[in-house]
Write a structure and sequence with these properties.
The structure holds two protein chains of two kinds. Chain A is mostly helical. Chain A is built from eleven helices and no strands. Chain A folds into two domains: about 90 residues, Orthogonal Bundle (Fumarate Reductase Iron-sulfur Protein, Chain B, domain 2); about 80 residues, no CATH class. Chain A is globular. By secondary structure, chain B is an alpha/beta fold. Chain B folds into two domains: about 120 residues, Up-down Bundle (Glutathione S-transferase Yfyf (Class Pi), Chain A, domain 2), CATH 1.20.1050.140; about 150 residues, Rossmann fold. Chain B contains 15 helices and eight strands. In chain B, helix 3 crosses helix 4 and helix 4 crosses helix 5. Chain B is globular, with a radius of gyration of 19 Å. Classes of the chains: A mainly alpha, B alpha/beta.
Chain lengths: ~190, ~290
């Protein structure tokens, strides 16, 4: 079965917000007809304040504040169940990506601050070391979120089991830093 | 057979036992892995949340290094890396302008397309399967295992084009059966384990993995085989916590599928890094042979 086209949607903008999402991630929320298959399969809806189906509708309506102040896209871990099952082949992973892209860029106070911090600290970490230094990310995250005791026992046991390297190694950091720099320049242009 | 080997960050830390067993299996079946020297992190589950361009540039930079060193195929054992490599290739494949933009960022123009393979795809070819069954040295036929594939290899199928059925994959089952291990049918093969929420929202991971462990036990599994470092961590390290919260004791050892293959091919247990696992593997292994 082929997917429906946007035959009854005027070709000009539906909402500025959905345009922005499309521009950032090349994904069209107007293809969605609210069948809720994404929400039915999503493993994390128990933790989300709005379902993926509601979020995609809100994006179409241009409800930017509501969407960016939800925790839905922070909890999305891109498992791809929604994108796999969507009868309209709307790649919902990319909608969620666009939302965290926008929220981080605009400095929106995250409904799940530790997750937002994790992305930022994690990327700063690979930028500095070239490869992921797990212990560094975990330590920095716990420090910055003040969550020092959460998972401390598990972390120590992982260290004991040799699952976490104590020290970072520096790998091709020149290439890594150059990519970060060039991406930034490109995005400003 | 010769592959460039993108070792992945996680196989240097939390999943060193996966690297050890994968190399052992490849050695035994005559697959040569050539680890790339200058590889960098692919951005994994982080970069796409922050910037689309960055999330494409990082994996494609690595593929550029691989193509430059003369390889046209690469083995990527980490499911998160595999996913990001495939997404990046798909996205630039659909959009020539985007491709030019990313090539400009990484300062490399691709000559062709490097083929990206997960070990499950390589080891489940007919030729390797028959080689595997000839090499079996240890009888593990009484061990009952469920194969857990997780999300990142199989979804979205249009993009990852993983060589298997999206929602009910079989490659791992075929590999394990080739070395005499019985795999059971179950319903949670591709349900999500919570992935990187393990760092930030352990309570979500506990909920998701409990369902997976529960279904594995319900069908009578004695162990779970996995092809992904996230899946391994999430299923392995929180069983005690889950036990306390839900008042059950699972004690289900989580093996990388390569560890089970390696054991069946006769590698002594102490040559693998089974001690890195949280859930003890000895009880189950002593029982079978």
């Amino acid at each position: 079965m082929g997917k429906l086209k946007e035959f009854d949607i005027p070709s000009d903008s539906v909402s500025e917000f959905s345009d922005l999402v499309k521009e950032l991630q090349d994904v069209d929320v107007n293809l969605c007809y609210q069948c809720r298959k994404c929400t039915s399969g999503c493993p994390l809806t128990d933790f989300m304040d709005y379902t993926p189906t509601q979020i995609i509708h809100a994006v179409r309506l241009g409800l930017k504040d509501l969407v960016l102040n939800s925790n839905t896209f922070w909890y999305c871990i891109a498992c791809g169940t929604c994108s796999t099952r969507c009868p309209q082949e709307t790649n919902l992973i990319k909608v969620m990506d666009a939302l965290s892209n926008i929220a981080l860029k605009e400095g929106i106070r995250s409904k799940a601050p530790d997750i937002a911090k994790f992305y930022q600290i994690g990327l700063a970490n690979i930028r500095s070391f070239g490869r992921m230094y797990d212990l560094g990310v975990a330590g920095m995250l716990k420090l910055q979120t003040g969550n020092l005791t959460q998972d401390l026992a598990t972390g120590l046991k992982m260290l004991g089991k040799g699952k976490l390297g104590l020290l970072p190694s520096f790998q091709n950091t020149a290439a890594m830093k150059r990519i970060f720099k060039r991406v930034k320049e490109q995005e400003k242009a | 057979m010769r592959y460039a080997y993108y070792k992945s960050c996680s196989l240097r830390s939390t999943g060193r036992e996966y690297d050890r067993s994968l190399r052992d299996v490849c050695d035994r079946v005559g697959i040569e892995l050539v680890e790339q020297k200058d590889w960098i992190c692919c951005g994994s589950t982080l970069a796409h949340n922050v910037s689309r361009l960055l999330s494409l540039a990082l994996p494609l930079k690595n593929l550029a290094l691989i193509e430059k060193s003369g390889f046209n195929q690469v083995m990527v054992p980490c499911a998160a890396c595999y996913n990001r490599f495939k997404v990046a290739q798909y996205e630039v494949g659909e959009d020539p302008e985007l491709k030019a933009e990313v090539e400009d960022i990484i300062e490399y123009k691709f000559r062709g397309k490097v083929k990206v393979y997960h070990p499950l795809e390589v080891l489940s070819s007919e030729a390797v399967l028959s080689r595997l069954s000839q090499l079996v040295k240890r009888d593990l036929s009484s061990l009952k295992v469920v194969s857990y594939y997780g999300c990142l290899l199989v979804r979205p199928p249009k993009i990852t084009q993983f060589g298997d059925v999206g929602e009910y994959p079989q490659t791992m089952d075929r590999i394990l059966r080739a070395v005499g291990i019985s795999t059971l049918d179950w319903s949670y093969k591709t349900e999500c384990c919570g992935g990187s929420l393990l760092v930030t929202k352990p309570e979500a991971v506990v909920r998701l993995t409990q369902r997976i462990l529960e279904d594995a036990r319900a069908v009578g599994a004695e162990a779970i085989a996995v092809p992904c470092t996230f899946c391994h961590l999430n299923l392995d390290i929180r069983q005690q916590e889950i036990g306390k919260k839900y008042n059950v004791s699972y004690q289900l050892p989580i093996f990388y599928f390569t560890e089970l293959v390696s054991l069946a091919l006769g590698t002594p247990e102490d040559k693998l890094l089974l001690k890195m696992h949280f859930v003890d593997t000895r009880t189950v292994l002593q029982k079978v042979a």
